[in-house]
Backbone:
């Protein structure tokens, strides 16, 4: 990879992290409301995968969707505006954190229903095949989501119909309070793919280059008409399941370990860039500063945007019908 | 008398039944070690152990289907579905399976299970975590549907629901969990199918469910200042439905407003209204009025959410519209 491309990966990861820390802060200040699930600690996955996607390729996302959406190229301003429930947000304030979508970027939506994305991803892959557009669809999902029946129906049909779908599992060891060992019958989520004779990988999800290379292979396979693949990315979430929960179910040492320089996907990649690609401290500093500015501008944009007008509550239910409001 | 939160009242009822009957067990996501997303099962895991308070994977079909199978074969499950929206992932198990067994197989089967679920909006959780889907289940023969509005009712109705030999769907409004009130000492069941007059009045009957009972009581207070004395009736169970108590109130007041948090189209409130129209038309002085959510999904941002869901002032306006 060229230095420029490597720095792009770095920039995307940092953007996700800084956006998420800002979101956490804004949540504490009650500027952001509702259910907010942060992606901090898992940045390498969305970044490494989406770096292989074209603008018109599809993704389905989850309740923990900010990272996927940023990596697919979304506008931070409109994202933050949505988190703040503003008219200028991606969903005009109707969706919030769990429901950001941008069809122009192939983002088929963050989803509040665990497992909701699996079969939708198959549908997107199906369209691409029928319409011969050569697009692929990446389905992001957590370890917990593999407990849903929907996940199995999707993997089966994707394989049988050779759909251009890449199942990207973010195995962060927990589904809410449920530790993976208590919730999953197999040790590795990638074992699931075995049953469907699907090419599968189990990788270090905190190593952005490994994610990138693995996803590249799987995406090429999908584009060549060879059907779906499954990538288990091992990772860890730094924050609680949502903002702000007590996290009584996981040992503090475990969190500490995953936050260490050796495990942190960003610190690791930064070190790698400094040591192997002639990236300077100064370059890193500049990138960070520019992101800080961008995130700050996003918050300002959000706060300066109007709240939606009440009448908007009644639009968008259908393409052609506006529902009645209150008298 | 003791003062407890709504969530504690449900917990105490479940605990009492678990102590009395070893067949009773709890099952659901995050209900064990961390005591449930809304804290309803807090302490039960510690007291009864992981055998009887079962944390599950994210598998709503398994939660309900396994419960139904266990209920058929000698156990009494109290299942938790985190939000009623997720019940739809298990709709087949509830509607095509559990609800049908007894009738379809000729009356030989019993399905003594409770499915508890949080319902309603108000916490800016948007369209997939805020619905009021009770009508969906009232529509299904074979299911009983319970929707308490106070800690005392929740306690007594939960006991009856667990002792009931049919599948009981138990709705718990998200915003009621943290409401506290007095409950009677002891564990007296409240039979399913008995409404409760929450406030007596003479001028109009407000039939309300769940959080809307509280909103209706607030509305009644405002209306009293304007000389309208409203009676507030809470059916408490949507099926079986205590028509008698509701009709008695109507016969007295001759006016009715029905208030629920549901999307108005196809709502339980419409079922209630049509019952009244069919049975009590002659007793009414004015048209039946319904208050509900707008016919839209529940939006995220607080100002839109407040607008879409029925509020106290909407109830006041609805009542005044028939005076
Ligand atoms: C059908 C359904 N059941 C339950 C939930 C509640 N819920 C939201 S996120 C979550 C845990 C998801 O775990 P995982 O798939 O591992 O994703 P992670 O949060 O770890 O990223 C649960 C149980 C839901 N949103 N949808
Ligand atoms: Mg997880």
Residues:
């Amino acid at each position: 990879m060229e230095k420029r491309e490597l720095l792009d990966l770095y920039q995307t990861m940092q953007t996700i992290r800084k956006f998420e820390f800002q979101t956490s802060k804004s949540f504490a200040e009650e500027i952001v409301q509702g259910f907010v699930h942060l992606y901090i600690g898992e940045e390498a996955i969305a970044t490494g995968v989406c770096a292989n996607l074209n603008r018109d390729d599809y993704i389905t996302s989850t309740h923990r969707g900010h990272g996927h959406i940023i990596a697919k190229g979304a506008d931070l301003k409109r994202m933050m505006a949505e988190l703040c429930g503003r008219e200028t947000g991606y969903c005009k304030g109707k969706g919030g954190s769990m429901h950001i979508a941008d069809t122009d970027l192939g983002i088929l939506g963050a989803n509040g229903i665990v497992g909701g994305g699996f079969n939708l991803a198959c549908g997107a892959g199906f369209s691409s095949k029928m319409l011969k557009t050569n697009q692929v669809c990446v389905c992001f999902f957590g370890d917990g989501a593999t407990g849903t029946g929907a996940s199995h129906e999707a993997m089966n049909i994707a394989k049988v119909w050779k759909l251009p779908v890449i199942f990207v599992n973010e195995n962060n060891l927990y589904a809410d309070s449920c530790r993976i060992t208590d919730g999953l019958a197999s040790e590795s989520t990638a074992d699931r793919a075995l049953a469907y004779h699907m090419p599968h990988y189990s990788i270090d999800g905190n190593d952005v280059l490994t994610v990138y290379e693995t996803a590249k292979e799987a995406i090429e396979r999908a584009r060549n008409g060879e059907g779906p693949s499954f990538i288990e990315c091992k990772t860890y979430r730094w924050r609680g399941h949502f903002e702000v929960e007590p996290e009584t179910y996981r040992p503090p040492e475990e969190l500490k370990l995953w936050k260490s320089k050796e495990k942190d996907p960003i610190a690791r990649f930064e070190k790698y860039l400094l040591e192997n690609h002639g990236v300077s401290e100064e370059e890193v500093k500049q990138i960070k500063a520019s992101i800080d500015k961008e995130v700050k501008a996003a918050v300002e944009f959000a706060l300066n945007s109007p709240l939606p007008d009440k009448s908007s509550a009644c639009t968008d239910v259908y393409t052609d019908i506006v529902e009645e409001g209150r008298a | 008398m003791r003062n407890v939160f709504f969530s504690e009242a449900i917990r105490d009822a479940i605990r009492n039944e678990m102590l009395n009957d070893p067949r009773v067990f709890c099952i659901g996501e995050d209900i064990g070690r961390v005591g449930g997303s809304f804290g309803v099962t807090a302490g039960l895991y510690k007291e009864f152990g992981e055998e009887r308070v079962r944390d599950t994977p994210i598998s709503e079909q398994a939660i309900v289907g396994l419960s139904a199978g266990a209920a058929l074969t000698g156990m009494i499950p109290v299942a938790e579905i985190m939000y009623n929206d997720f019940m739809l992932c298990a709709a087949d198990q509830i509607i095509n399976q559990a609800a049908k067994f007894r009738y379809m197989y000729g009356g030989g089967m019993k399905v003594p299970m409770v499915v508890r679920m949080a319902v309603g909006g108000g916490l800016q959780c948007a369209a997939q975590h805020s619905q009021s889907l009770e009508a969906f289940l009232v529509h299904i023969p074979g299911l009983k549907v319970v929707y308490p509005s106070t800690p005392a009712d929740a306690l007594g109705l939960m006991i009856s629901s667990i002792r009931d030999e049919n599948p009981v769907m138990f709705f718990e409004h998200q915003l009621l969990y943290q409401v506290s009130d007095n409950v009677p000492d002891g564990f007296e069941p409240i039979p399913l199918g008995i409404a409760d007059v929450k406030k007596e009045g003479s001028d109009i009957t407000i039939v309300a469910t769940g959080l809307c009972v509280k909103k209706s009581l607030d509305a009644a207070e405002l209306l009293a200042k304007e000389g309208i004395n409203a009676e507030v009736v809470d059916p408490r169970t949507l099926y079986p439905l205590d028509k008698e108590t509701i009709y008695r109130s109507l016969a007295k007041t001759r006016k009715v407003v029905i208030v629920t948090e549901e999307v108005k189209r196809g709502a339980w409130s419409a079922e209630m209204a049509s019952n009244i129209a069919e049975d009590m038309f002659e007793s009414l002085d004015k048209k039946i009025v319904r208050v509900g959510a707008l016919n839209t999904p529940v939006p995220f941002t607080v100002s839109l959410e407040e607008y879409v869901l029925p509020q106290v002032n909407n109830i006041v306006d609805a009542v005044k519209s028939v005076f």
